[in-house]
Amino acid sequence: MKSALRKTIQWILLLCLLLGILIQALGFWNYNPTSVSTKTRIGMVISLIQLIVVVWYGMSYGSKEYSFKEVVKNWLEGVITLIIFYLVFVISLPQLFSAWNLWGVFFPVLTSTSALFSGIIISLFFQPFIFRLQERLNTKQNVLLLTTITLLIFTLSAGNSLLTSYSIFGLYLVLPFAWGMLISKIKVSKKVLFGLVVATIILLPAVYYLTIKLMPIQTPQGFIFSQMNMSWNTSLLMAPSSPLMILFVVTGALLFRSSMLGASHRVFSILIPAIIFGTTSYGMSLWKEKLQLLLAPVSKKVTVLLILSSPFLYQPLFAFLIFLSIVGFYTVRDIQSASDFWVALVFIFTSKFGTLVLSSIFLFAIYEIFYVITTRFWVSASIPTVLALGIAIADGIKMDLREEPVYPNEISEIVNWKTLIPMIGVQTLIYILVGIALLVAVIVYLELKHPYNLKREKKSWVALIGSLLILITPVWFNDEDSVIYYISKGFDNNPDFRNPPDSTANNGAVLTFLDFIKVPIMDKPAGYSEHAIKEITKKYQKEAIAINKTRKNKLSDQTIVFNLSESFVDPKEFPGVKVSNNVRDPMEYIRSLMTQTTSGKMLSAGYGGGTGNMEYESLTGFNMGNFSSALTPYTQVTSHYEFYPTIGMNFPYSSAIHPFKGTYYGRIDNYRRFKFNKFAYLGSKYKIYDQKSLGTSPYLSDETAYQNGLRQIKSRKGGQFINLISMQNHMPYGDYYSPNEYKDNVSGSSLADDNVKTSFAAYTKGVEYTDKAVKEFIAQIDKLNKPVTLVFYGDHYPSIIDQSLLAKYPLKMHSTTYFIYSNKYAREHGAKSKIVPDKYVATSSFIPMALEQTNAKVTAYQALLTRIYKDLPAMTINYSSSDGFELVDQNGKKVSEKKLTKKQKELLKDYKLIQYDMSAGKGYTLDVKGFYK
To answer: What is the DSSP letter of 524?
Structure first.
C-alpha cells in the first residue's frame, strides 16, 4: 500500500514538473511584463522548476557511484530528442532555421541549447566525484561544505539571473544536484525540518517585500539595477544560484523525501523531452508562432531535409574546402597587419561560421558530382579548388579595380579574355598560370602515384543526385516564398545587394557569387496592377498634350547623339590632387563650352566600372536607384524582353558605334531588343573607319569615335539617333603617351606613389586628347545644315586614387562631367542653348533634357520623365548606405524622401510603377499605344 502510494505521489510530482516546464514554454516566454516585480515572480517560478528537476535527479543518483555510461545514455536521449524535435521545428518553421541551433542538436552542452539539459549532463559527469567526496565526509561536514559553496557561487556570480541563456550556466546546476544526492542518504530530525520550513516561510515574503518594494525606491543603485533587471535584490530571488531558492527547494525535497526517493531512471527519461521542448530557443519559438506546426504550408516542407542529411560534413576533404572558403574571405579584405589577419579569422569563425560551412557544402557538392562521374578523387578535388580560388582571386582583383566582386552574369565576358589581360595585369596573370601549372602537376603526380578511385554503387548515384539538387538551390536564395530562402538565412547568409563589397567581406567570395545568381530586381510598389498602369498612362498622355503645346519640333526630325565618354571626369575635380597651372588645362575647350550651354555634374551609379548601367539609364530613362540590388540591367532585366523601349525607337533610324569589341554587356543582343538598325564595332559587318590609337594605348582614340560618328550623321538626310560609346580613357592607365607634360605637373596627397602618379598623369593626358577631339567634332557638326544635338557625359570615375576616399567624398567621386550642345543649325530652328536645372542631374534625365533643349514634342512616357526631371531632385543610387535611392538637390545636398511634397511623392510613385512594369512586372505599358512612341 505504501509502495503504491509512493509511486502515485512520484507520478503526481513528475506530472507537475512536466506541466511546469510546458507552462514555462507556453506562457512565460510569450509574456513580456514591464514591472520588475512581475518579472521577478516569473523568474522565481522558472528557477524553482529548474532546481526541482536537478535536485530530484540528484536524489535518484545518490545511492551509489555511477559510470560514465550513465552520462552517455542521458546525452544520447537528449540528442535523439533534439534531432526529432528539430526536424519537426525546422519543417514547420523554416524561416527560423539557424545553423547554430543545428550544431546545438549534436553538441547541446557546448552550444547554448539548454542550460537545464546541460546541467543534468554535467552533473552526471561529476556524480562519481561527488559521491566519493560525500562518502568521506559526515553529514555536518557535507552540509557545511555545500552551504559554503552555495553562498560562494552566489557571490561570485554577482547574483546574476541564470535562466536558459547559455549552456555554460549548467555548471551552476551541479550544486543543486549535489544537494539532491546528499538528501537521498541523510535523515533529518523533525525539529530541524520544522525549522527549515519556518525559515523558508518567513524569509521568502520578507526578502520579496524588502527587495522589490523598498530597495528600488530607497537607493539610486537599486533603481538603476531594477530597470536593467540585474540587481542583487531581484537576483537574490530568481537566480538558480540563489541561496533562498536552494533553501526553498531543499526544504521541499526533505518534506517529500520518502515519496521522491525510489523513482527509476526510466521515469526520469520522460523529463528529457519536456526539458528539450520547454527550454530550447526553438521550443519557445514554436509556441510563439501560435502552433504553426499545424498550420505551416506543406509546400515549405519540400527539400528542407537536405541540409540535415549531409554525411559529407564528416569527410576529411571538407576541412580543406573550409580552408578554401576562408581564403575567399581574405582576398576581399584589406589586411594590413597580423592583427588584421587574426581579427578577421575570429570574425569568420564566430560571426560567420554558418556562411563558411554553407560555402563549403556547395564546394563539396561540386566535388561529389565530378567524383561520381570520373571516379578519380584527386581530379575531382581539384575542380572545387580551382573554382574557389578562381572566384576568390577574381574578386580580389575586381575589388581593387572597381570595388565590387565578380558577378555570375559576367562569366560570359571570358570571351573578351584578350582585353581583360591588361586589366588583370601581366604579373598577376603569370602568377595565376604558374599556380595552375603547379596544381596540374600535383594532380597528375597524385593520380599516378597515389590513386584513390571510387567504386560506384547505388549510393554513389544518390550522392550525385543530391549534390545536383544542392547546386540548384541558389536559384531560390532570394525568393522569400521558398524554404531554401529560410535555410540560407539560417546559415547567416544575409547578402546586401546594394553594398556588394561589404556583402562579400561578410559572406566570402564563394557564397557571394552564389547569392548573385538570381538577385531581386525591384521591390513591387504598392498598388501595382494592370489597371493602375493604364491609369498612369492616361494621366501622362494628358501631360504630354500640355507640354507639346509649347514645343515646335518633331523629335524624329532631329539628329541626337548620346556620347558616353569612357571614364571622363575633370582631373582638377579629383580629391587630394592638383594639376599645375604651368600646363594646358586638360579640359580647356570643354570647360569653356560648359559656360555657354547646358552642363554640370552627372550623378553616376558606378565607380571604376559599370558602364552598361549608365548607358541603360541614359537610353531608357529608368534609374538604377529604384532597383533592389546592384544588378546589371543589360543582362538581368532587358534579357527578359523581346523588345525594350529606348529613346532610339522615336527616330526613323537608330544606330550604335563602339570602336571596341561589341560583346561587353551583351550589347549585340540588347541593341537588337532596342530595335537599333545598326551596331558598328570591331569585328562587326559595319566597318570602324579611321582607326587610330594614341601613343602605345591599346584602345582606339576618341578621334576615331567622333570620325565614325560624323560619318554616320552625314550618311542620312533625315533625323536619327546615335549611341556613341568611346573607349580611349578606359583602364588601365599605363604610361602610353610621350611626351606627357602632366607627369611633372600633377601632385597631391591622393597620388600615393609613383605608380599612381604615372597613372593619373596618363589619364589627364587622355582627357586632354578627348578635349581636343570634342572641339574638332563640334566644329564639324556646326558646319552641317541639319539639327544635331550632342549629349556628352562621362560614365564614372576612373579607378586610380585610393578607393577609401569614396566614404569621405561620396558625391564628388560619383559626379562626372556632362554637357548638352545643339549645333548652330539646331539653335536657328528652335533649339535652346541652355536649360535649367542642370548643375546636378541624373543619368536617366538625359532624354527629357535633350527633348527640352531641342524643343521637341514628347510622348506620354517622356512627359513623365520631364516631370521627374523638372519637379524632383536628381535621383541616383544611395551613396552612403545600402538602402534605396538618393535624392540630390542643385546645391549637391541630400534630400530626404520624407520631405517631398504630396505631389512629388505621387510623381515618384508613378515613376516606380512604370519602371517596375518594365523590369520585374508584366510589361503592361508595352500594350499601350503611344505611351513610349
So the answer is: P
Reading the block at residue 724, the C-alpha cell is 556613341
Find cell 555545500 and name the residue: 146
- List, in order, residues 6 or more apart from 822 with CB less than 8 Å away: 597, 787, 788, 789, 790, 831, 832, 833, 853, 854
CB 593 within 8 A of CB 819: yes
Contact between 766 and 565 under an 8 Å Cβ cutoff? The reply is no
CA distances from 517 to 226, 407, 636, 911 (A): 50, 8, 10, 27
Whole-number pLDDT of residue 394: 83
C-alpha cell at 386: 580551382
746, 572 Cβ separation under 8 angstroms: no
Cβ atoms of 832 and 822 closer than 8 Å: yes
* Total Cβ atoms within 10 A of residue 337: 8
State the distance between the two ends of the chain, measured CA to CA, in whole angstroms: 97
Cell readout for 65 is 557511484
If you write DSSP's letter for every residue of 407-427 in order, what string do you get? -GGGGGGGGGHHHHHHHH-HH
Integer Cα distance of 885 and 897 in angstroms: 9
pLDDT of residue 303: 32
Alpha carbon 722 to chain centroid, angstroms = 39
Instruction: Answer yes or no: are the C-beta atoms of 678 and 656 closer than 8 Å.
Output: yes
pLDDT given at position 30: 39
Question: Which DSSP letter does residue 797 get?
Answer: B
| Cα 775 to the center of its chain, rounded Å | 46
- Name the E strands within 315-461: none
Please provide the DSSP assignment of 474-520 as one string.
GGGTT-TTSHHHHHHHHTT----TT-HHHHHHHHHHHHHHHHTSS--
pLDDT, tens digit, 9 for 90 and up, residues 675-729: 999 999 998 999 999 999 999 999 999 999 999 999 999 999 999 999 999 999 9
Residue 212 is given by DSSP the state: I
| CB proximity list for 521: less than 8 A, separation 6 or greater | 627, 628, 629, 631, 636, 637, 919, 920
Radius of gyration of the chain (CA): 36
106-140: per-residue pLDDT in tens? Answer: 666 666 667 777 788 888 888 899 999 989 999 88
* Per-residue CA distances from 893 to 137, 152, 812 (Å): 79, 61, 11
Check pLDDT > 50 for residue 887: yes
Q: What does the alpha-carbon distance between residue 697 and residue 324 come to, in Å, rounded to a whole number?
A: 38
For 529-534, the CB contacts below 8 A with 24+ separation are: 530/922, 530/924, 532/913, 533/913, 533/914, 533/917, 533/921, 533/924, 533/925, 533/928, 534/924, 534/928
| Closest to 513 measured CA to CA, from 393, 670, 689, 637 | 393
Q: List the grid coordinates of 726.
A: 568611346
Place of cell 536524489: 59
pLDDT tens digit sequence for 522-570 = 889 999 999 999 999 999 999 999 999 999 999 999 999 999 999 999 9
Distance (Å, rounded) from C-alpha 831 to C-alpha 790? 12
- For cell 552517455, what's the residue? 72
Beta-carbon contacts of residue 571 (< 8 Å; ≥ 6 apart): 577, 579, 586, 587, 746, 760, 763, 764, 767
Kindly report the number of other CB atoms within 10 A of residue 129's CB atom. Answer: 12
* 737 in Cβ contact with 695 (< 8 Å): yes
149 burial via Cβ count (<10 Å: 0-12, 13-18, 19+): middle
Residue 219 pLDDT greater than 70, yes or no: no
Q: Is 790 helix (H, G, I), strand (E, B) or coil?
A: strand
Cβ(572)–Cβ(736) under 8 Å?
Answer: no
CA distances from 327 to 441, 561, 675, 703 (A): 22, 47, 45, 45
Q: Is the dihedral of CA 420, 421, 424, 429 positive or negative?
A: positive
For helices 500-515 and 316-330, angle between their N-to-C axes, nearest 10 degrees: 140
Q: What is the pLDDT of residue 33?
A: 44
- In whole angstroms, give the CA distance from residue 192 to residue 256: 15
Q: How far apart are CA 876 and CA 621, in angstroms?
A: 12
